[in-house]
Amino acid sequence: QVQVVQSGGGVVQAGKSLRLSCTGSGFTFGNYGMHWVRQTPGKGLEWVAGLSYDGSNKYYVDSVKGRFTISRDNSQKMVSLQMDSLRGEDTAVYYCAKEGGYRGHLDYWGQGALVAVSS
Amino acid sequence: DVQMTQSPSSLSASVGDRVVITCRANQDIKNFLAWVQVKPGTAPKSLIFAASSRQNGVPSRFSGSGSGTEFTLTITNVQPEDFATYYCQQCGTYPLTFGGGTKVEI
User: Fold this and answer.
1) Is the per-residue pLDDT at B46 higher than 80?
2) Element housing A95 (H / E)
């Protein structure tokens, strides 16, 4: 069965860096785009970043451009989100999600990882 | 960016009720619309994609409809496990964007 398992997260000071990772199993990892979505405390979902099946196309929400970097290693079935220059407003639960066969459709999600940025 | 607006933001329902959630886009997104269910402490779950196609394993009481700028998610015969927050998401253009969510409560 399809599984998306996340690692990383934690408490970090503002201005510092943190890396999130996620591995996929139960599907041909290198055939699908992967994304990161966050949910801020008490608020809704916000898409953060995504990349194509081969990593050649990367997309970001404006608020993280230049600070966050999404990447993937298909040989390891892993996608990562490098988060630099973290701000308080980046505090959220971050979800990794697999893209389905339909463009932009996030069909399987990871369990989430809390990132808390302290000032 | 495509703005997605959901209504209502919350609603109360009883087991067995029919629930309808509306989502509007501020521009034509054709049928590039998905619905996601979120429960506290669990991974979000995909329900609907392409506006009306059910994800594998999703019960038939969940249905989606609409195209262009107006979409609905209908839950017929609401079950106890359906009490959650539901989000619409446009899938057509980057950045992907979500509605504000609809919390379905008892």
Assistant:
1) yes
2) strand A92-99
**Beta bridge mates, B90:** B33, B97
Q: Which of A61, A100, A110 sits opposite B49 (nearest CB)?
A: A100
Interface membership of A52 toward B (CB under 8 Å): no
Mean pLDDT of chain A: 96
Per-residue CA distances from A67 to A43, A59, B59, B95 (Å): 22, 13, 40, 16
Q: Would you state the structure tokens that stand for residue A19, as one six-digit string? A: 């890396």
The residues, any chain, with a CB within 8 Å of residue A6's CB and separated by 6 or more, are A20, A21, A22, A94, A95, A96, A110, A111, A112, A113
Over the stretch A69-93, which tens digit does the pLDDT of each residue have? 999 999 999 999 999 999 999 999 9
- State the pLDDT at residue B19: 97
Residue of A nearest to B88 (CA): A45
Give residue-wise pLDDT tens across range A21-71. Answer: 999 999 999 999 999 999 997 789 999 999 999 999 999 999 999 999 999
Measured in angstroms, the CA of A72 and the nearest CA of chain B are apart by: 19
Q: What is the pLDDT of residue A42?
A: 76
**How far is it between the farthest Cα atoms of chain B?**
38
Give the DSSP letter string of B64-103.
EEEETTEEEEEESS--GGG-SEEEEEE-SSSSPEE---EE
